[in-house]
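Margin note from the TA: students keep mixing up input and output lines. Inputs are the sequences; the output is the structure of the whole complex. Example:
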Amino acid sequence: MNILVIGGGGREHALAWQCAKDEKVKNVYVAPGNAGTALEPKCQNVVLEDEHSGVIRFCQDNAIDMVIVGPEAPLVTGIIDACQDAGIKAWGPTAYCAQLEGSKTFAKEFMAEHNIPTAAYKGFTDAHAAKAYVDEQGAPIVIKADGLAAGKGVIVAETVAQAHAAIDDMLASNKFGDAGSRVVIEQFLTGEEASFICMIDGDNILPMATSQDHKRAFEGDTGPNTGGMGAYSPAPVVTSAVHVKVMAKVIQPVVDAMKAAGHPYTGFLYAGLMINDAGEPYVIEFNCRFGDPETQPILMRLQSSMVDLVAQGLAGQLPSQAKWDKRPALGIVVASKGYPESSSKGDVISGLPEIDGNSRDETVKVFHAGTAFSNDINNADVDGNEKEVVTSGGRVLCVTAIADSILGAQQAALAVTGAISFDGAQYRRDIGHHAIARETL
Ligand code: AMP
Ligand code: GLY
């Protein structure tokens, strides 16, 4: 089989690595990929010119059996619809369903209509009216850019003044471009967060192992929001009672409502949840894709074949359970200088463990995200290991380990992370702290 993975981050490295493990798979193409996917056995990077027609042409020319789409942007612009029209098997939601992530307003209205628990909210395009609403509600309060902003368009304002400043940034100064031309203002929720990710085939739901990520840049969950600085699986806050509630109150209603609307949901669905002290889940956001960095620890635990699961999903025959390693896994993101405000490119990365094609059951795996080769990522060849790997983006690596406890996984990941260095590298040493506190109670 030949597989095309769309995307170039840590999530896509993990997806490609999982697909390549399957003996049926001959080639995994990753577009555009990164240095890690270039070095991975059976995998190679490709550059596709146009988002939709380029993908279709590549699939037709290379006998691609299955496309797996990683990031949200091509999903929101309809890559799945385009592939379906061309008779190509592609895993992900259609553009209609992807609005759950592409528009916070669509998502909030959808949740209100289908009684899915979420924070109370109001949408605004006028800064004056938005500020008046904040004055009325008080702080803390949450200000969100309506459109896609790579996980950074959310300001949790501790004070009314901070909320006003965020509104000015989004509506008046246009800091988030079109994504911020409309804002959603939300009630501040308290509790513990978890990521609940499923595969859905229009009808059947296959929950992935639960996970939790750390969105804030700095230790102690402080600093600005990022795309995610680390994650672990499972998330102990999702007890089996909470799991049942999430399936009944969040996931099943999405599947039923999309089906009733004539747009069956297919692909990954990610519910970002806040679980309150009473164990009640509230949806903070929906994503129409797998999480990054959640994918890395989750797929480290997956014992079923990702390729088989996607094939079953495409055939409308998803099983209700996959096979998981019982041991927890944890990933630490190593980001480049200045992330999330800015990022640095071209810094040489040293201390990376060699990718060993013969050992597919490693207990520590360094997934690449913002990496490239110093000369040119597409020149990767058999001696690719000897080329210099350099940074090429904000989140550079996700060092992921599996062990008998979350603390053990954290320590194993930290040991490898500590040996890797590049100019300005930053990472958090406390990934998993909520779960470790529970473990050591
Ligand atoms: P989002 O991009 O919507 O997931 O938001 C990013 C992060 O902001 C979340 O992971 C939460 O930590 C925080 N956040 C978003 N919405 C709320 C809310 N209504 N109450 C509390 N925290 C929130
Ligand atoms: N880790 C958060 C996300 O993928 O949106």
